[in-house]
Amino acid sequence: MAFSYRFSAFVGLLVVLNSCVIGEPKRRNVLLIIADDAGFESDVYNNTAIRTPHLRALARRSLVFRNAFTSVSSCSPSRAAILTGLPQHQSGMYGLHQDVHHFNSFDGVQSLPLLLGQAGIRTGIIGKKHVGPGAVYPFDFAYTEENSSVLQVGRNITRIKLLPQYGPFCERFGNGDSGMGRIPDWTPEHYSPEEVKVPYFIPDTPVSRADLAAQYTTISRLDQGIGLVLKELREAGFENDTLVIYSSDNGIPFPNGRTNLYWSGTAEPLLVSSPEHRQRWGQQSQAYVSLLDITPTILDWLSVPYPAHSLVGGGRGQRVELTGRSLLPALEAEPLWDTVFGSQSLHEVTMYYPMRAVHQGPYRLVHNLNYKMPFPIDQDFYVSPTFQDLLNRTQAGQPLSWFKTLQGYYYRSRWELYDSRADPTETRNLADDPAYAPVLEGLQSRLLKWQWVTSDPWVCGPDAVLETKLSPQCRPLFNGL
Ligand SMILES: *[C@@H]1O[C@H](CO)[C@@H](O)[C@H](O)[C@H]1NC(C)=O
Ligand SMILES: *[C@@H]1O[C@H](CO)[C@@H](O)[C@H](O)[C@H]1NC(C)=O
Ligand SMILES: *[C@@H]1O[C@H](CO)[C@@H](O)[C@H](O)[C@H]1NC(C)=O
Ligand SMILES: *[C@@H]1O[C@H](CO)[C@@H](O)[C@H](O)[C@H]1NC(C)=O
Ligand SMILES: *[C@@H]1O[C@H](CO)[C@@H](O)[C@H](O)[C@H]1NC(C)=O
């Protein structure tokens, strides 16, 4: 188990291209491409330091969303949310699926592959799956970490021993250097630490710049992979009947990114390309959309209804409602959608730190339920050069070149309220500012309502206990919070 972080680092970063091909031969198909740990490292999102010609080509045929968010900043919970339309607290996929973490969705969850299969539509998944149990995600075709050499690499200790040479982002794997093997279709793009763009939430140090440069190289593999898949699609004659969606699962694996419900942990690239909705191709949308919208979008595209059902255990008998919406109307006219929700409970099994969030217009509210605990750090992020550098500098009392201190990162307030107009980096907490009391209360009540609608077992925390015997209600604990 000592090597588990290397396993997840490898799965997480080598398999950057994950496509689910969902086919209905006669009329409409869907290709859903979910990158792993990717962010806005693309010229589509105005990062001119990196070249992503294939994503740019896709963007010319897509509506580009500028305010898309994952509901959860962790791989398996996010992939489960994408494939079920349910937040992690409702699907049961609370944390990572693989090895010791062992999280799974509830047995009764109605996932896309299940619903589409029942509708006679064939589904397949290639690349990282990272969700379970198998019966909840019954793809007709699967070539994932469960079959591919990635599993081998995770289990073969000789290879695990050799793993670090692939680099922290596995950016050297397959690049043709001695011992790296070759991926014939990949022409690696290299970047110097000086040329990368350092986002506001990452320390600007030589170490993190080198980390970012390595990450850019993996993005070139992703970008070229997307080009290959789209070429296959075109040559197979499906270009004009396939909805193509590109996004990523969570924030990038840097400080304040993955595992956080801040903007930097939840904002995602999102391109939606429909051959039947060309009026907005190449345009951008400001609408607030969620990866919880992907399931309703695909069901809408394929005209498959979402069945009435409840999840006993997870949902206490309450009827399951999708709180996301189909994105197809946005492909025709700019909608006025301004609210998205977030819900995180764990990443690795040891990382219990429940948070709930709502982002409405300029405001983001984060509720840190267990705010007296230090914010947890995951194993592969811990060993990343950027975090090691942060630890070393903090210990040595050297400048961090960061927008936070480690202490501030670890210890958070119960409520965090930010106004992105005046404070785009989310550093000035307004939750205690009396002038924002009405905003705070309004957001708290929206968040609470969403938690009830989605059967959130954490809805009463941390100062009360959820009592479900009669009608569900919060019973006070008198614990001083
Ligand atoms: C890129 O920058 C241009 C010019 O400032 C802006 O109009 C556009 O919205 C930006 N694109 C994205 C995706 O943020
Ligand atoms: C991959 O593994 C899964 C689970 O064992 C299996 O159902 C599937 O058929 C395998 N796929 C291939 C292409 O062998
Ligand atoms: C384990 O990995 C080593 C190094 O790549 C390789 O030589 C060996 O064949 C692998 N073992 C198995 C069982 O595949
Ligand atoms: C797809 O539609 C476009 C525009 O109608 C057309 O030019 C193109 O030939 C079509 N492609 C295929 C493969 O049918
Ligand atoms: C952090 O400090 C340790 C111990 O001095 C050292 O081995 C390591 O290379 C340093 N890492 C970074 C990224 O500075």
TrEMBL record:
Names of required cofactors: Ca(2+)
GO MF assignments: N-sulfoglucosamine sulfohydrolase activity
Signal peptide residue numbers: 1-23
Gene3D superfamilies: Alkaline Phosphatase, subunit A (3.40.720.10)
Residue span, Sulfatase N-terminal domain: 28-134, 207-303
Sorted UniProt keywords: Glycoprotein, Hydrolase, Signal
SUPFAM superfamilies, sorted: Alkaline phosphatase-like
Record carries keyword Signal: yes
Superkingdom per UniProt: Eukaryota
Pfam families named among the record's database cross-references: Sulfatase (PF00884)
Keyword Signal assigned: yes
Protein family according to the UniProt entry: Belongs to the sulfatase family.
Entry protein name: Sulfatase N-terminal domain-containing protein
Species name: Aldrovandia affinis
